[in-house]
């Protein structure tokens, strides 16, 4: 009477260990690819979570299939229906090791690349945070870099490009960040509701300043991930040498895959100038 094979020897015979190792390494590569590509496509954060959950479910299914079925020249067959002496197609140990090592190297390279990319970005953001003037940081602290989502980072980058366009006094590019139905609420002036009016507003502003810049300090996303509120601080120097610092609030909306500013409002931190007394006021006191 032949001895019944042990459970572990049966796992080895049915290639369950090989399937588990292959699946784990390939899944690692797929996760690294998803983490690399999805932010570039501006995909919602929940997609990567759902993808990982799907891979975990697939792992359990792969183990079950490797245990219950055998790959034969005629296709998949239940293991119990395959004779013990049947010759089954399989990879040699050398080919299997080369495949696992190759996939693991690619996955590790992607992981290392993303890690090295994130460190300079975090260091740069920390330096920029420390360089923000005291009056600007008093408005709102910069959010923790590690908590910034890909969409939030996209909006911060867009606002930075907008600031650079204004600093370069590129009127057309500066106005291009607004939506067609945008509204601007400048201080001490009526609300501007037309694209032409916004252009004239910016033309007057850029003609009167020698330097202007601003930086986002906070981003609040809507649950739908298609609308966001950006707040921050600005600085500008007028051509007569007068300096101004203040805060701003922008409402951005994503339509047809493009982010644009729909509402823009800003105001100075400097105290309002005292109004001149009416004629005869001193005599009435």
Write the layout of secondary structure elements.
Layout: H1 7-13, H2 16-37, H3 46-68, E1 69-72, E2 75-78, H4 93-131, H5 134-137, H6 150-167, H7 171-175, E3 178-185, H8 195-208, E4 209-221, E5 227-238, E6 243-255, E7 258-268, H9 281-284
Helix pairs in contact: 2-3, 2-4
List keywords for this structure.
285 residues, Nuclear Transport Factor 2, Chain: A, 23% strand, rod-shaped
CATH classification, class level of the largest domain: Alpha Beta
Strand % is 15-25%
Total strands: 7
Low-pLDDT stretches are 128-143, 278-285
Q: How would you sum up the major sheet? A: 5 strands, mixed
Count helical runs.
9
Give the CATH architecture of the largest domain.
Roll
Secondary structure class reads alpha+beta
CATH topology of the largest domain: Nuclear Transport Factor 2, Chain: A
- The residue-averaged pLDDT reads 80
- The separation of the N and C termini measures 121 Å
**Count of discrete structural domains:** 2
State the helical fraction: 40-55%
Gyration radius, in Å: 31 Å
N-to-C SSE string, H for helix and E for strand: HHHEEHHHHEHEEEEH
Cross-sheet strand order for the largest sheet: 3-7-6-5-4
Query: What overall geometry do the principal axes of the alpha carbons give?
Result: rod-shaped
């Amino acid at each position: 009477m032949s001895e019944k094979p042990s459970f572990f020897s049966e796992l080895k015979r049915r290639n369950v260990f090989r399937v588990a190792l292959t699946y784990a390494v390939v899944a690692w590569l797929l996760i690294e690819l998803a983490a690399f590509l999805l932010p570039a496509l501006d995909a919602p954060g929940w997609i990567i979570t759902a993808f990982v959950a799907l891979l975990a479910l697939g792992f359990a299914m792969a183990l079950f299939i490797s245990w219950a079925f055998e790959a034969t020249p005629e296709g998949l067959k239940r293991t119990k229906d395959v004779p013990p002496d049947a010759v089954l197609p399989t990879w040699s140990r050398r080919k299997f090791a080369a495949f696992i090592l190759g996939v693991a190297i690619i996955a590790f390279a992607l992981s290392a690349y993303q890690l090295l990319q994130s460190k300079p970005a975090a260091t740069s953001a920390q330096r920029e945070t420390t360089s923000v003037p005291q009056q600007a940081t008093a408005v709102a602290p910069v959010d923790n870099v590690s908590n910034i989502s890909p969409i939030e980072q996209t909006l911060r980058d867009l606002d930075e490009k907008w600031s650079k366009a204004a600093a370069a006094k590129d009127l057309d590019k500066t106005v291009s960040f607004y939506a067609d139905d945008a509204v601007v609420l400048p201080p001490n002036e009526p609300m501007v509701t037309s694209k032409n009016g916004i252009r004239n507003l910016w033309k007057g502003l850029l003609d009167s300043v020698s330097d202007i810049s601003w930086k986002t300090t906070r981003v609040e996303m809507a649950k739908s991930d298609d609308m966001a509120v950006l707040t921050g601080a600005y600085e500008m120097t007028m051509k007569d040498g007068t300096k101004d610092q203040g805060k701003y609030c922008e409402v951005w909306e994503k339509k047809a895959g493009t982010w644009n500013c729909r509402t823009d409002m800003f105001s100075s931190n400097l105290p309002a100038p005292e109004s001149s007394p009416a004629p005869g006021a001193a005599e009435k006191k």
